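The freezer alarm interrupted the setup, so I double-checked each line after restarting. Inputs confirmed:
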Amino acid sequence: MTHWKVILTIAKTHLLTKIKQTATAALGVTFGIGAYITLVCFMTGLNTMLDDLILNQTPHIHVYNEIEPSEKQPLDYYHNVENSFSVIRSIKPRLSQKKIHNANPIIAYLNQNENVRGAIPQIKATIFYIAGSIELGGNLTGIQPIEEARLFNLQDYVVEGTPKDLYNNESGILLGIGIAKKMSLDVGDRVQISTIKGAVFPLKIVGLYQSGISEIDNIQSFVNLKTTQKILGEAENYITDINVKLYNIEEALPLSKKIERQFNLTAIDIKTANAQFETGTTIRNLITYAVSITLLIVAGFGIYNILNMLIYEKMNDIAILKATGFSGKDVQYIFMSQAMIIGFVGGVLGLLIGYGLTSLISTIPFQTEALPTVETYPINMNPLFFVIGFLFAMISTFLAGYLPAIKAKKIDPVKIIRGQ
Amino acid sequence: MEAILKTKNINKYFKKPVLFHVLKDINFQVNKGEFTSIMGKSGCGKSTLLYILSTMDTDYEGELFLNNQLITGQDKDHLSYIRNKHIGFVFQFHYLLSEFSVLENVLLPAKKLAEKSLKEIESDAMQKLKMLHIDHLAKKRASRISGGEKQRVAIARALINNPSIIMGDEPTGNLDSYNAENVFDIFKQLSDEQGLSFLVVTHDQDFADKTDRIIQMGDGKIIS
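Predicted 3D structure, all chains:
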């Protein structure tokens, strides 16, 4: 039989009469939890931002035609040299087209797959930007601007103008910000580009593109898919790349293998392309959790210490409680509930402090060339972190209170009463 | 006469530092309404016996009966319940919970027993305090009252659950003669008027002489 009301009254009285010790113990938890919330929100915020930087604009599967030498060279078909050592010099890549054969049916087919959020075509072309007599080399990518914005967050990287402006203007171009700077151009100006074959086209700048990686910003520009086909003098089914975005990133590897087999194309999945990236994320998470758990363990030892001391101070009380009919369990619960109250109060305060600090951090300006859309420090305020933080406060104080409480449970009242 | 407390062949050994036979074949009983005192020289085992009788010490051989029920071998939680309901304690040192008020100190055992509502318990407690003439101290902290008052609070606490027997380990040992007499008078009055049984270990010959019966102990045995 446990009478929680009595037990809690006793626990409360003990805590209130030793308010300084109680406050110290609770503050230990508060700082532990507060630091945990701040750290984890901030770190995961940064992580998500870094992930987005790479992953948002990267297709989950990139399908294209690789230019490479044939695996079976003509000599291999000549059976007379079968078991001998043959040397072929100056191997050339196989003469194949850059364009994906039957691209539109493939895109339609991929879009029917239920794992696929969207598959969209691109055309990649090498061109020159012409500024007077100077020609600057560059990459032109033909895109479907609206779809590109929907699936790959193009709008985040268009610092002036919008993807829609490009969609509305058939001879418009989203110019890389590096080129724009070099050529002193701005939105509304015209830029001339020349294809490798020498044809020159004037295009109107409808927006500026900034990926954050200056090497890309110095060469990359976007135009409409159809415009690219026109510039290159190709037919309407000329498509060099297909980018696929999935609902679940884990499906990327199997699907890319399937595409490779089925269509005889090269398909690279995001994990293969960015393997080192995931390692970084995992390690950052590991560090975050290692630091927070250390903080909480330190707080836990603080509580353990204080409760231990409290029990030595309260030896007489424990003996008298036991003599007047409180069982060992009751005494154990008294001290356990003291620990849990400390954990609860400290934990809730810690959550509030963590919330306050993260809110503060999220208002601090953080501007960097690399991330045009980020203006303040990124914070990932996930309610789950608050739940974990609270649970951790309760569990660590439970453990810290458990051992001293067991000690109190085992105290022999006769020894105390006779020993005086 | 109805026996409240009865022992059968109780033996107790101290195992440390060397094996020592403290209590040898203790057989006696305390009847209802009887005021018994245990006397003997220091180290003869009278306190040891009292703590066995109090159910707090379970490490002994033999059998112990309270209200004709065998206590020996019961589990600890049940022993706690028995202490709570049937046994009241008064110690040499007052052993109040110093951070609680006088009233709270008296209330705690009753709250633990939880047989009555809080209101009933409080009025019981106030009545006991009044009987002992310390009702004006009810709201004071237990650490702020005098030694004699503390002992009376301890008596009120021992009485709160209307126990079958009250045990005292030198309840007057730490008090001046005036307060000691006061405590004795209270015990005597409770014994006469309410038929409460008392078992008191004491060194005080004057105190013992006034009780109904004296149990003399020597070398772990009951002499008379």
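Quick read of the result. The two ends of chain A are 31 Å apart (CA to CA).
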